[in-house]
Amino acid sequence: MAQTPQQRRANEKYAKQEAAKRGKPATIVKQKQKPKTPISTGWIVLLAFIVCGGVLFELLRVVPEIWSVVASSFGRWLG
Length: 79
Hints:
By secondary structure, this protein is mainly α. It has a domain at 43-79. Helices cover 76% and strands 0% of the residues. It is a single-pass membrane protein.
């Protein structure tokens, strides 16, 4: 049995009232969620220090040796 125009208006009115009771539709309320990383920032910093810290300490050890070689060769070249 098909709806009569009177029933259709009554159904639309009821749907509007129910929507007003519930608040805004989920499509409007839905917000973007920030993706959560599987590990915390502290662990990432620690891992970066472990990986890059060795390189940093090695450069601090090697740079004075390289500097002394460059300075001595430059001194020989000038003098």
